[in-house]
């Protein structure tokens, strides 16, 4: 425990900065070279590159020749400068694109970005640097400013009034709002003020700070080493910023379907009997599950790329048996390679110079789980290839997913990481660890993903990581590290994962149930309810804590968890659609309400409820012994998922939520595609799709559109066109509902004969479907075309034959 000594004045650093801070002074000359504008000041200067009409890179340089390299965060194909007109006046340089005007004040290097209506979107007042290599910039902030993004950070959704550090850190201590750095660093800040939003991405993998504590005056961004290399990303909506930021740093690849199933983990399942028994229990209890994780105890004294010969004597047999049950394993792989001259990986790493070294040539050693270890230098593509290739050991066993942990890198020493003077070879452009730190974990996952992809021959790999930097989404899903079984941590997972989604990390989630400390029956239920609609869904807990597999708290709890995990599987077609959307547009799978309702003042910091996609509102209960909660419904009409009750939006309602219920609402005019309940994502059951249509007011009418994406769920052949897309459209007015569907892409043929539509629409109690007969549910299940009443909420189910030509039907309310 810390005492007040922790805040002794001399520990707080110099209160007055003693160094001189340099600024570029005024512009003394400027030139254009290959569409790049180089503006030189009295000392140093700034390079301006327009990467599109909406994205501008501004890199400060101190030397004579500006260095234009980027980090691995930026997709090289996006870093091509475009030519836009520039006009020089006495005081300014004015660059104009179709969307923005960037005005550079010659006397001060002050930069203003305006929209075409002349409204100031962003103002950068001052950039400066000190002789120790730190840089700093100050930006205007408004009284109505709100801040989002910044990846994995504690506290609430809106980062106004907070300060954060980007320095990947292994934090086992409870994640509290005051913790400024966690495992991932995504230096993207989204600033919304009034009707305008923009993003600032600082491409610097060293330590950086974003300080939004001055209420309404200015915010600052600083970095302690490396270049001040900032990208302005235009809005005006947050959605535009997210799409553009992810066009620059990449989007998630569509995961294999199994990776978006339910995952079960524990530090550790200790032997192969335990793993097999666990898988059998899932199947016996009919609780769906796709993945079991192997934590560090599967290895031979924590040597990566080995199995413990005593506790896991026949991994191939275990994996085969698991395969028969439809369960995969994902083993953990940490970067620390045990120092042991009899261990092949270590020997090879030393002999072929794959480990991080100091400038003088000696290998850096640090202590982690295996004891003294060396750390591969993933910045070197030769080493990255070597590491990727080592994964053949796993793929030969039938493994398709790897869990990267401790890759900040975490080291058991005072600084918690590698010494700052260790070098990274960086393909011939060596940098110190101090400058490179936040990239280390991402480059490990990149090497892992690429190695797996190589050896899986066309199957989609899955990588999970704890550490990362901007762009990590291209290679790995991210989990939020060592949280605790605290209700507060369950609640905090919402803003954390929502902001991660706004920062490009569309495939993310926390350890469900909490990692450290002991979970409870209620906490596990509530957390699982919330977690089954998070993109990444894994229950994981630490050694020495209460067990938290779904059956750990008796039958009632088990029943509720079975129901909710089952719901994730029934909603898999819809979820998969959202993952596809994330791959194509960069928009996150789960979203804070501010993303969809940017003009609603009630949602600027709303983060105890979230949206799945655009139109499904999830409102978890996140306090113990609570069976009611307030829910904010934005404008529109919302239908209670559980009882069909219709609520007018734009107000708060009190939801009733006994333990078995998590409040969920679907916006009127929404389709949700559901499939059959499966025990694992690609279980071969009779395939079926039910389009649930949520409507409310027949008289006033509504319309709904949906596009269902389908492919084989496991290979990359969708990238060659082997996928299908079905458009479904509904138009309701004056007692008639017209439904139309057609394939706009049919490169993949789903194995099914029929399609179903479930119409959750009260007036259909008295409706009939033109040209189709009313039949029983049993006849529907036999595959006949027709329609039937569902009872609940007056909804009806219509079944038609599947046809590549699409079709349409009309449902008419009965007269009287
Ligand atoms: C770290 C990980 C945790 C894992 C443990 C043992 O604490 O964050 O998930 O179980 O190491 O490998």
From TrEMBL:
InterPro entries: DUF5110, Gal_mutarotase_sf_dom, GH, Glyco_hydro_31_AS, Glyco_hydro_31_C, Glyco_hydro_31_N_dom, Glyco_hydro_31_TIM, Glyco_hydro_b. Residues 253-578 form the Glycoside hydrolase family 31 TIM barrel domain. Gene3D superfamilies: Glycosidases (3.20.20.80), glycosyl hydrolase (family 31) (2.60.40.1760), Golgi alpha-mannosidase II (2.60.40.1180). Keywords: Glycosidase, Hydrolase. Residues 586-670 form the Glycosyl hydrolase family 31 C-terminal domain. GO terms for molecular function: carbohydrate binding; hydrolase activity, hydrolyzing O-glycosyl compounds. GO terms for biological process: carbohydrate metabolic process. The keyword Hydrolase applies. SUPFAM superfamilies: (Trans)glycosidases (SSF51445), Galactose mutarotase-like (SSF74650), Glycosyl hydrolase domain (SSF51011). Residues 47-211 form the Glycoside hydrolase family 31 N-terminal domain. Residues 690-756 form the DUF5110 domain. It comes from the Bacteria. The keyword Hydrolase applies. PANTHER family: ALPHA-GLUCOSIDASE (PTHR22762). Belongs to the glycosyl hydrolase 31 family. This is Alpha-glucosidase. The lineage of its organism: Bacteria, Bacillati, Bacillota, Bacilli, Bacillales.
